[in-house]
Amino acid sequence: MDTKTLITESKARFSHNSAKAYLQEKYSSKLLVAEQGGLWKADAVTINILSSFTTKKLVLIDTFNNPVEVDRKELLNKLKDIYVSATSEYYAEWKELEAKR
Amino acid sequence: MSRGAILFAFNSTKYDYYAMAEYTAKRINHFLDMPVTVVTDKNSISKKSKYKFDKVIIIDPDKTNMRDQAIWINKGRYQAYELSPYKETILLDVDYMVNSDRILKTFDITEDFCCHDKTSFYMHPGVPQELLSAYSYNTLWATVVTFRKTKRAKQIFECLEMVQKNYDHYAAIHSFVSGVYRNDYALTLALRIVNGHTLLPGDIIPWNLLHVGKNTSVYANSDKKWNTEYTVMFDNWQKGKIRKEYITIKDTDFHVMNKDVFVDLIK
What we know:
The complex is a heterodimer.
Chain A: H1 3-9, E1 13-14, H2 16-30, E2 32-35, E3 38-41, H3 44-52, E4 57-61, E5 67-71, H4 72-99
Antiparallel strand pairs in A: 2-3, 4-5
Helix pairs in contact in A: 2-4, 3-4
Chain B: E1 3-9, H1 17-32, E2 36-40, E3 55-58, E4 66-67, E5 70-71, H2 80-83, E6 88-92, E7 96-97, H3 106-109, E8 113-116, E9 119-121, E10 141-148, H4 151-165, H5 167-174, H6 183-194, E11 209-212, E12 216-220, E13 229-238, E14 241-250, E15 254-256, H7 259-266
Parallel strand pairs in B: 1-2, 1-6, 2-3, 9-11, 11-15
Antiparallel strand pairs in B: 4-5, 6-10, 7-15, 8-10, 12-13, 13-14
Helix pairs in contact in B: 4-6
């Protein structure tokens, strides 16, 4: 029996809460990256702080709470790429989820 | 630098762990592009199987652990350090469904050793984290462990051996039931002992281990060999009736706690 038939025959309901929690878990880990000797999360806070400076080097506290001196622009570009690719995928899956409402 | 995965598989009267290991090994080969070594015993090896592990290590397992009135061979995981032929190793439970290359990221986050300290259950968002007991530590998980052959990783595995051999003692101190040996509990204690009774952030995989828990089943959405889409179905008991709920997941690794569900999935 394929899963579509299984869902229909068992009268199963799509669980939006569980699906939302699953997507959050999935994409939160996709934002993580190890670069320049630290572990970073490509989130709004980190990208913003990197964007707000103009210096070549910057000391940042990574997700392990270690201070790491980084090449600011290089890390910023890397995190922006990761942010865009992960959130685009997240958005696409989110739209699929919304369509089931 | 050699890199590979190691699986422990000892058949019980109820489950064919060697078959599970084979299935998981094929997915590791495909998604992680790395060789797999299996640690097993003579009685578990399948003669019919055509799959070739990178290495098959036969040991005489410790059969002193019991679960559900049957022998459950899960002791001896500490031997992973000595038995692994790789400099960088991922030690996985055989019922871990690999659907992506995400575990490879663990090599970037650790110098020595890392494992999960948090879990999430599909269909049960917000379930509290497991503790060894009400007044003890948060459980660490031995389901996915990444390690390198370093002095510190060796210490952790040696400590795991020590905890296993003195499990009743630690159970008494931490007030958990010692009847069934659990690698998760032994690992929790071993890692904390080596770290001076604390946890180092670098030893922790920074995302949650995803479990398929009780009253939950998983069905593959296609018959394709490398399918990564599944329907997760949950029996939600309300007022004496079951209301079935489901979600669809894709490209996400997960650990199946109920072996029957895993066996159905790999058929």
